[in-house]
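FW: tagging you since you asked about this chain on Friday. Here's the raw sequence from the shared folder, copied in full. Didn't touch anything.
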Amino acid sequence: MIVVENVHKRYGEQIVLDGISLKIPKGTVTSIIGRSGGGKSVLLKHLIGLERPDKGTIVIDGENLVDMSATHLNRMRRRFGVLFQEGALFDSLTVSENVAFPVREHTSLSEKEIQELVTARLAAVGLSHHAEKLPAQISGGMRKRVGLARALALDPEIVFFDEPTTGLDPIIRSAIYALLVRTHHERSITYVVVSHDIEGVFHISDEIMMLWDGRIVARGTAEEMRNNPDPIVQQFITGSLEGPIHAE
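HL: got it, structure written out here
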């Protein structure tokens, strides 16, 4: 579904992506892990088409995002859902209106059809009774669930997640991951998850890739990553202070 070949990106003298290559099969859950500030979110922005690489190609379902016109890219993005780190909800809109927003923007559905779709999406994430509340009136975990409902509103082929559990307590974090697993099984969508929550992504992912110094230095299943002999991989996934990675 997604093929990235030799992608480079720098900002001034800082090299952020240094020859990234990866493949993400259709219908899988693929997670990208790495240090905070290590380029994960920059890579995600490239996959969505919000950034263009200095060099390399990003092909989604046979189409190269790098060479696309703005109009074509906007059409392509309608096939994506995105759950941003902070939920990115509109503060002045209710929960229901937030979920309805992309449907109103990108479809010609009637208001009745939109409301039926929104009701179904909110029910899927367990928020039917909070439809008329504003984002400020619900918890952080609920806001993430609203973000997921909105990301799924247009039946996307790919959903991108940027740190979906940051700032949540362990119980809510587990609930979010369980919700991701359930919605993925129900829809067989391609999920791409960017996170540094090791145990969470190990639980949900078909494949995990580790981004380090602008490159993918390891990839594999959760079991393969746990058994990877690379000391950088081992120190990162165990959180040990001993090893080649220095705390900054």
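FW: Residues 94 and 133 are 5 Å apart (CA to CA).
HL: agreed, and The chain has a mean pLDDT of 89.
FW: great, closing this out.
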